[in-house]
Amino acid sequence: MKALLNTRFIQTPLEIECMRWSLIVIFLLFGYSKWFDYEAQALIPLIGNSPLLAWTHSVFGIQGASYLLGVAEWSIGLGLIVGIWSARITLLAAAGSCLTYLVTLSLIVTTPEAWEASAGGFPALGAESGFLLKDLVLLAGSLILFKHAVVQQAHERR
Fold first, then answer.
1. Contact at 8 Å (CB) between 70 and 31?
2. Any idea where the domains of the chain sit in the sequence?
3. How far apart are CA 34 and CA 139, in angstroms?
4. Distance between CA 103 and CA 36 in Å, rounded?
5. pTM: predicted TM-score of the whole model, two decimal places
6. CB atoms near residue 8 (< 10 Å)
7. How far is it, in rounded angstroms, from Cα 87 to Cα 146?
8. What is the pLDDT of residues 9-52, one digit of tens each?
9. How many helices and strands (H and E) does the chain possess?
C-alpha cells in the first residue's frame, strides 16, 4: 500500500489530473474530427482569415491543413498522457496546449462575423466567437498544467 501511495499519480492533486484528462479528451476528440471533410470545411473561414494559419491552406490544401491540426492536437493529447510519468513531457505538451489556445483565441479577432452585427457588433458574440471563447478556460487550464510541471521539475532536480 505504501508503494502505491508513493506513485506520482497519487501524489498529484486531483484537480491537476482532472484538468489533464479534460484536456486529453478535448485534444483527442477534436483531433479526431479533423480527419473528416465536414470539419475541414467548417475551418475554412477560421483558418483562411488567420494571419497565423492561412498559409496552411496554400501549402497543404483544405483537408491537409485540417490533417495538420489533427496531428498537432493528437500529439499534444498523447504528450499529456505520457506526461503522467514525466514532468518534462507534461511541460512540453502543456506549452503546446497554451500555444494552441492562444492561436485559437486570436481567431476571434480575425474571423469575419465573429461579432453579431444585428446586435451592434462587439461585444455581442457571433456563432464563431461564442464557440472560440471557451478556449479562454482551456488556456487557463493549460497554464495550470504548465506551472505544475515547472514546479515538479524543480522538485525532481533537488
1. yes
2. 16-157
3. 20
4. 21
5. 0.87
6. 12
7. 9
8. 455 789 999 999 999 999 999 999 999 999 999 999 999 999 99
9. 9, 0
